[in-house]
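Notebook, p. 212. Picked up where the previous page left off. The plan for this session was modest: take the two constructs that came back from the sequencing core last week, fold each one, and keep the raw output in the notebook itself so nobody has to go hunting through shared drives later. Recording the first one now, exactly as returned: residue sequence, then the structure token string.
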Amino acid sequence: MRAVLMAGGSGTRLRPLTCNLPKPMVPVLNRPIAEHIINLLKRHGLKEIIATLHYLPDVMRDYFQDGREFGVKINYCVEDEQPLGTAGCVKNVEAMLDDTFLVISGDSIADFNLTEAIAFHKQKKAKATIILTRVANPLEFGVVITDKDGRIQKFLEKPAISEIISDTVNTGTYILEPEVLQYLPPHEESDFSTDLFPLLLEKGEPIYGYIADAYWCDVGHLESYREAHYAALEKRVKLEFAYQEIDNGIWIGENTYVHPTAKIEAPVLIGHNCRIGQGAKILGGTIIGDNVVVGDYAELNRPIIWNGVIIGEECSLSGCVVARGTRIDRRSQILEGAVVGSLCSIGEEACINTGVRVWPNKRIEPGAVLNINLIWGNIAHSTLFGQRGVTGLANIDITPEFAVKLGAAYGSTLKQGSSVVVSRDQRAVSRMVTRSLIAGLMSVGIDVHNLEATAIPITRTMTPKLGVAGGVHVRLHPERHDYILIEFFDTNGINISKAKEKKIEGAYFKEDLRRVPAMDIGDMSYPSQVVETYRKAFENHLNLEALRNSNAKIVIDYVYSVSGAILPQLLANFGCDAVVLNASLRQRPISSVEKENLLSQLGRVVEALKANFGVQVSANGELLILVDESGSPIRGEELTALMVHVILSANPRGTVVVPINASSAVEKIARLHDGKVIRTKASPTSLMQASQNPQVVLGGSGDMGFIFPQLHPGFDAMFTIAKLIEILTIQERSLAQIRSELPLVCHKSITLRCPSKIQGALMRYLIETEPPERLELIDGVKIKEYYTDNWVLILPDGGEPLVHIYANSDSKDWVEEHLQMYREKVQNFILQQQGF
């Protein structure tokens, strides 16, 4: 049986260690990762290996040659032009695969029982078997759902937090029959997880998951690289050491001298031909390569030192990685999480601070204190995007320097010379952040159309009309007023996909930022007729005659968050009387208590003026709360139901799009109007994307805003108000009348704290303990009762370590009982996982 070793990876997330080394050749225990994989294959009788190469292929070929020295036979296949992806590179060697074969990733450390996995594959008569394992944090991996027999039911590639429904993940090791490669196009990029396996599932081919109870570590980033070493030293994974174990947990190579006064603490590994000086301290967890010199009284606390490094007297290294050939002069310090590339020179008494990365061949002057990555910029968090764009504390997390780098990262994912539209709300802090973002965009050769202070619905309308590659809007977060929210749009004005977010994060964290010559710096322009363009689009999708005959009087409360609002001007064109409250801009954000007081004030004004209705507009033109003619507010689920009722009454047999957690009142109303309901994940992007279906007449919810896809793809409170006036006029009804027609549904929710690393296991537990026929897995886990509209939804939060539990029924008692039941079930599982 042959094995295919996928060894073409460049290891960009391991930079600077992989600047001049392919990832499979990065050392673990002083031997390449690929050598440990070959030893694993050899232990299970797989001695015919085909290695697929792309990045720096000669490094691996020169090391292993034909494989005889390692007890195997190796053939090589190099992807010369471009990488073909995980599946494409295997398709490229299809002619060499005439029987069952194994595929294994070249960038992981594992001790799977491959013999048992192959027997499982043959017993199931599978066309493909994926070796799976369970992990605490599945966010970075492909999640796989199997039935009790091991047959795969669903794939979810690198999910967002709110999408996690299991902690069982794909390890990149597969057992395949050669005929499955017929499904792949030749000489084209394709991936097992996103292309081949979903296709096999769709075609009904037998595809199974073998859950391995063994160690596995995807050495995809620096933290997992260190973890693989520590696991090996602690014997949590079975790897072959190249050195003799002279004492329990102490391995020392040949021709190595350790001064009698040096202190060595297990577990530790020291390579061949090393010199450990007088009084040196080598503490547990330390890895030292071959030909390394450790000076007198140096202290090494869990660093990973590659071959040929020279460490001077009294140096201190803690939890860092130092690549080959680097020289560290006396009394220098390298702190936790720092990484130094190969062939660097670090001067005396220099300090490389926590988490700092130094690229190869750099020189650090004596006494220098390095707090930033050399030369590229500051270190930041491991992820940027949450449930809804990039958020953080204003001027603490989201600073001008952060915004410059974020703008450069976004621009680097676009073609040089592309244009983007940029806008903001009217806050001073938003103006500051926006200017920094624009600077970053221009620095990488991106032209900017600056709309300045503009309501976000107008920006979404302008994005496709300007023919730009995308857009950015900066505003105060609608729910957390000390936070900034930065949202990114695609060419259609829809929030960008998770895949695009990952690309921006990749450019940001890898610091793969394009730098252009001075003559190629981007330009900035200020488009004209922006409000006029929106007004025309606005009017084109309204019954103007109905509006002009409405004689409507409405009261609009802007909650001190906007000045110069355009909605009253638009409504005045139709003869509507718009009374505006609190339209001056207050730089200090409004608290939730103040907002509720203003809503009560709005209700009193509506009632006193005998207005048709009132509306409180927030979130820079996206969100609204209605107030009927009696002064009573309409919000949340009631607002969702009311809008669905109003729009479907005017558009019978239409389709509405709502989030998974919306109440069943939506379906009840849709049945009255012969309409259809599409439920999506509880995220703005999912709602926007699903609303682009030509049959959709309304999307959104009372908590996120409402989408009228014929106008633009985003939420728009202004158009919602105008549409309400139009339909109420035509139907000669009031909000109170419509409100009285809404079905009575009890819909409640509670929120519990749940550590992010437990969320995947919680979702898997719920799936395994509930009847499969009652489950709906659009987002989180929804458990439905047979033949009723009763359901419970357990939904992980998209940005916080929380889980939300929703219960829905016509019966209040049913809701209370099931909320309590699932609250206890979830809490007990969380406590159990935490060891209580």
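Okay, moving on. Second construct, recorded in the same format:
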Amino acid sequence: MRARTVLAASLILASALASALDAQGTAADYARAEGLHARLDNLVVDVAEQANWIGNTSRFWYRKSVKGGNAFVLVDAATVQKKAAFDHAAVAASLSSGLGHAVTAVTLPFTTLAFSPDERAVEFMVDSTAWNCTVADSKCVRSDAAGRGGRGGRGGRGGGAGGGAGGGAGQRFGGGLYGGELPQITDAPRPSPDRKWEASARNFNVFIRASGAKDWRPLSTDGSPGNYYDPRTFSWSPDSRKLAAYRVRPGFKREVHYVQSSPEDQIQPKDVSRLYNKPGDVLDLDQPVLFDVASHKQTEISSALFPNAYTMSFLAWRADSRALTFEYNQRGHQAYRVVEIDGSSGAARAIVNEETPKNSFFEYSAKLFRQDLGDGAETVWMSERDGWNHLYLYDGATGRVKNQVTKGDWLVRGVDRVDAQARQVWFRASGMYAGKDPYLIHYYRINLDGSGLTTFTEADANHALRFSPDNQYYVDTYSRVDLPPVAELRRTSDQKLVLTLEKADATALLATGWKPPEAFMAKGRDGKTDIYGVIVRPTNFDAKKKYPVIEYIYAGPHDSFVPKVWGVQWGMQGQAEVGFIVSQIDGMGTSNRSKAFHDVAWKNIGDAGFPDRILWHKAAAAKYPYYDVSRVGIYGGSAGGQNSMGGLLFHPEFYKVAVSFAGCHDNRMDKIWWNEQWMGWPIDASYDSSSNVVNAHKLQGKLLLIVGELDENVDPASTLQVANALVKANKSFDFFMFPNGEHAVGRRGALAPYGDRKQWDYFTHQLLGVEPPNRNLGLNP
């Protein structure tokens, strides 16, 4: 009998020990998560950073990772020579002497530099001091050219990617998107191009005088505090005969007020405020007015083509002074026009007239490109009118499309430059290759007539190019989430490989047990569209265990967010280490796919792609038995904060726990530009449908709200109002406010570790059923 008792006790103890060893959310898991950077950082060598071309030469430099730090490399594309940019050990010794403390060859205290014009020296910044080191003898001295190094300067020119010209949405001169203040009366003159005249805003009107004269003469008399001429908008014609300006009727100047509970410089709290327009607010009304200097004739432009502006761009004259143009972004973002005003008559016409269907929108905030050619004879324009983001060539005289430059079931991601002389466009695009990840960026060139498509990138990866100043060469740096970075020098004329610069070596990183995120794809809500995401597993992953799933969400329609390049996803990896699988997905409503894919978000931001996300998770669970979709959590910040709480409200059958950072929980409470871009104007019932505040009574799962009291991006009252709605609905939830915290507090910066622990603890308690380590007693595995 006693033997049986002992045996039973032994079995219970063995079972308890096995359970403890098999547990997740332990102090050991937390220690591994908190030590992630110490274990995994700086283990990948030969990772090349951005190439920097030197002046107008064929030479460039870049910084790369080496064991224990970094090194600078110099390459001559013409001679195919590659070497150290300077003697690192000698420079380190000279700097150590000058700084008064030791630095090593691989831990030089600067990350960027500039070569002198003769390339005999390099300049860089250490802290706030400029230094100059001669290449020949590695002697380093403090330089008088403070601020010149470390900014690329004369020696660091990046050619190619991202440098294209184009029109922007412009700024609302009479107030700005947050509502500005009335411009002060100013005597600061605006000289005419021929320097014979000066213009100034005085007593809310336009005045001119001959250069050097004392007395001012009015060009206008109809300005007033409630309808003033904004001097920031004054635009002289190139021939100095005419002046254009906006007369501005001010809109509503909304203020958001904050209480800083714990200022560093005093005991008592402070109150602060800022101007901040929100959806539905009355905006400034800009009216273009044309003045003839000689006759003092004032011509007010008919507003028929721009009756209800969200923004009006700069008034830009044609080079021959025949006309001026501006871009009109209509309130509600379903019409966008390039308007040309005749410089003599003031007659207005639309060169480009972009109008969308009722169930769609024009995305001016990320997919706007315009470049005029031949002083307005032609215009290259970007549009999604055929269902994909493409380029069109307009006839400037007729305002009609001459031809579509790019076309197909893929999209232009950006224009790097338009070569008017060669009649070519250099651009980035994605989705051109069937069966491949449609988000991966490749680089191309095409003729303006739509012929001669040339591809500069061949690897199945996400690319970033830097062209030489003469466009004879380019450096192609590419990677995927599962492919360490590669940097190659190629020739532009035939795209042939000239030199493999670097191939990153991740051996040491992989030896720790870390594995790259898995790119995973499943069908969306329509059963046809591919939905892409990634799966992140802990470094001690055991396929025999069951792992709760946590989704990191950001469903803002302005971009796509699933990582496409190599790197440790620190936030997701840290959460995974505690005992979870973490996923990130781009559902319908996010950008960089077809227009139909994107339009799901229109007046429907609460959808957040959830029907696609849930199917994606279920597909992953069908493939991987350890992927436990009976225990799903979700977290995110800003728009992701709205989305994470929305998961609990609108899909409680799937999402059980959420951590919401700095959420814009009602789109009427957030900044005007971002929310009206997707939810439209005027305010209608769709804002209620997507509101976490209005739908707070639907809460079933466990919710933690986190917000900074000084959030200047999303009004912190948005989080407090959703908390108020939850209280009124008698719902249980958790709440934490960071004193002095701004928008990213708890996610980035000094307090990120504290925010991470709040998030980890919440999911550990709610999804693992484990009490997190008591930090007040220390954290010991």
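Notes on construct two before I forget. The CA atoms of residues 255 and 275 lie 5 Å apart.
Flagging for discussion at group meeting.
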